[in-house]
Amino acid sequence: MKTPGLSERVRAGEARAVARAISMVEENAPPAVELMRELFPQTGNARVIGITGSPGSGKSSLVDRLIGHYRGAGRRVGVIAVDPSSAYSGGAILGDRVRMQRHAGDDDVFIRSMATRGHLGGLARASNDAIDLLDAAGFDPVLVETVGVGQDEIDIVRMADAVAVVLVPGMGDDIQAIKAGILEIADLFVINKADREGVDRLQADLDYMLSLGSYEERPRPEIYRTIAVQDQGVGPLRDALDQFLESQKGHRRERRRERSQARLLSVLTERLMSRALDQVLTAKKMEQLVEAISERRLDPYSAVDGIVEELETR
Q1: At a CB cut-off of 8 Å and minimum separation 6, what does 151 contact?
Q2: pLDDT tens digits for the chain (314 residues)?
Q3: Beta pairing partners, 142
Q4: CA–CA gap between residue 122 and residue 302 (Å, rounded)
Q5: Every domain of the chain and the residues it spans
Q6: Which of 105, 168, 239, 241 has the most crowded CB, counting CB atoms within 10 A?
Q7: Is the dihedral of CA 219, 224, 229, 231 positive or negative?
Q8: Domain 44-250 class?
Q9: What is the rounded CA–CA span in Å between residue 279 and residue 110?
Q10: CB atoms inside a 10 Å sphere around CB 59
């Protein structure tokens, strides 16, 4: 059962309570739903900033420096780092928290890594619940760092009020951005490790790609250069993020409506999937259906129709 007073302790910003609450939503524990119901009215205040990009682009170092700049301005900072999971162990690569250890003793900084763990749609739901928990606990901004190479991560970062896509010279990130579909979700671009050879070429290529876009409903993303490990350009980047968020106040309501719809559908999909797995798709039946589809004795659409019909009779 949920510990009495957990929601109150989260609202008070108690780190242990926030950590426990996030674990509950991550594990999809039954008390988590009631906890989120209690806390949801206190959410919607934090500015959520998504930081995404390819592995090796220096996102964690950039987030680490951004934390420092926001703390220097007296802000309480929450961080959700979405880690890739091991396909074998299900464990997360917690390098993000290692890089941010210098903030470990700061009560006004909360950092949490979350793993995919092979969840069917559960990652986006759990991550958004975690953002709400940090919001309810008084953290603002909430930084969400993702690898940016999978649909789960893109879905999560779409839930942010501002999205920064991090690129780095010499790694073909301009092409990677197009392939991963993150070019369209960027509100601004950051060329990190800007002391590397090829930075001018990367910016020129990015400028060209942006020139092909349409910006009737949103401003064209600006490009910023940083060297995160030396804390160069991070202050202007923080100012740019704040200015973007301030300039988009009028569009914030509509953007949050879109995110609310996506979140509703995400929770609905997960609930229906969970119900199908619990009530209809036993391991044996799953194996039988997969085998029939594999051998072309049954098409996947008919298989799903059968599952839905069986659910409707229960």
Answers
A1: none
A2: 444 599 999 999 999 999 999 999 988 888 999 999 999 999 989 999 999 887 788 898 999 999 999 999 999 999 998 865 544 444 444 444 555 667 777 889 999 988 755 444 456 778 889 999 999 999 999 999 887 655 655 676 678 899 998 989 886 655 555 555 666 788 999 999 999 998 998 899 888 888 887 777 778 899 999 999 999 999 999 999 999 998 887 777 777 888 888 888 888 888 888 889 889 988 899 999 999 999 999 999 999 999 999 988 87
A3: 48, 78
A4: 25
A5: 44-250, 267-312
A6: 241
A7: negative
A8: alpha beta
A9: 38
A10: 28
